[in-house]
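chain below, 145 aa
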Amino acid sequence: MLHRYKEDFAIMKIMGIKAYRFSMSWSRLIPDGIGKVNEKAVSFYRDMLKSMKENGIRPFITLFHWEYPLALEEKGGWVNPESSKWFEKYAEVVAENFSDLCDDFITFNEPQCTISLGLVNGVHAPGKKLPLKDTLFAAHNLLKA
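prediction:
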């Protein structure tokens, strides 16, 4: 999809697909999770959104689909009380750069999986098995975000 999205959207148009939900990559937009924005990523996503619109496809952006910036994971990830503020800044970057091309945003894809499968059972990223206390802190911060 990364390099052939224009062809893919043209095919989707032929198929009669009217909407497409995709996930932004927080790490692609802001490599360190907070701070400097990757302008190449902004250009890439803007081009993707324009291509969807040109093909009559309504975009739905998911901000978080289990992919978390490594630099922030190393600071404690969702357990860190600052994590909701980190996500807020990321959401601001998305809104500032893409709200003129997209009306529909989804904050989290299956937040219960982020917590239970990623932080309790360790079968999804980041693959941890945290104590209950930390898991509850992470759930609280994710819900605040």
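Strands lie at 19-23, 58-64, 104-108. The chain has seven helices and three strands.
thats it, cya
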